Amino acid sequence: MQALYVKTGCPFCAKVLVNAAALGITFEEKNIADPAVAEELIRRGGKRQVPYLVDGEVEMYESDAIIDYLQKKAAAVPA
Predict the structure, then answer these.
(1) Is the peptide bond before 51 cis (omega within 30 degrees of 0)?
(2) Is the pTM of this model over 0.85?
(3) For residue 77, what are the contacts with CB-CB under 8 A and spacing of at least 6?
(4) pLDDT tens digits, residue range 16-62?
């Protein structure tokens, strides 16, 4: 399952979540309000920035890049 690191109130996180929902994609949401999750994010990606997507070997920051990736992935899945 895909994981998305988020922060409550983050408009960029909300943007990713809204677009993902429209594509029928769900995530394990990891909120960096939890200090342990924030540290985990820093270990993975090197900085405390959200949203951050983890999908197998793919890991990325930036809401627009994440949305683009999800749209391309959804388009590649046969209906």
Answers:
(1) yes
(2) yes
(3) none
(4) 999 999 999 999 999 999 999 999 999 999 999 999 999 999 999 99
- Which has the closest alpha carbon to 10: 26, 24, 31? 31
Pairing mode of beta strands 3-6, 52-55: antiparallel
β-sheet bridge partners, residue 79: none
Distance (Å, rounded) from C-alpha 57 to C-alpha 8? Answer: 26
Give the CATH fold of the 3-76 domain: Glutaredoxin (3.40.30)
Confidence at 1, pLDDT banded by 50, 70, 90: confident
Contact (Cβ atoms closer than 8 angstroms) between residue 53 and residue 4 = yes
**Domain-by-domain residue ranges, the chain?**
3-76
